[in-house]
Design goal:
By secondary structure, this protein is mainly alpha-helical. It has four helices and no strands.
Length: about 130
């Protein structure tokens, strides 16, 4: 009987533990589905977080707001990181094609590389 009670208690505790994460709600974040959106979100949310971080003594409310803003910033940086990986791959294709004098690859990969890398250096149009 004691074994049955112990097993039941273990099952009950594991059930509570698995539902504990369900009760914890994270803040909503803004998606960054592409490089342009990610750059806009980075710019906008950096401005928001800057005003809070640059205070001499952030309040608890400020710190909670900072926590909330980081979700969107993390999404933006993840998208930018993924896009940088693709930009790097496209540039390497251009590099290798230039060694092989392969105009087709230079043109197609070069266009992709320039479009994405120019978005980085010129910033995004955040209307």
């Amino acid at each position: 009987m004691k074994k049955i009670i112990a097993i039941g208690a273990l099952c009950l505790m594991s059930s509570f533990a698995s539902h504990a994460d369900d009760k914890y709600q994270h803040f909503a974040s803004v998606d960054s589905p592409n490089l342009s959106a990610a750059l806009c979100n980075l710019q906008l949310y950096n401005d928001k977080i800057s005003s809070l971080v640059n205070q001499p003594s952030p309040t608890v409310v400020d710190m909670v707001k900072i926590h909330e803003l980081t979700y969107t910033l993390e999404n933006a940086l993840k998208q930018i990181s993924n896009d940088l990986t693709e930009i790097t791959k496209d540039l390497e294709k251009v590099h290798l094609a230039s060694e092989r004098i392969n105009a087709d690859v230079i043109l197609t990969s070069g266009e992709k590389y320039l479009a994405a890398s120019n978005a980085l250096v010129s910033g995004a149009s955040c209307d």
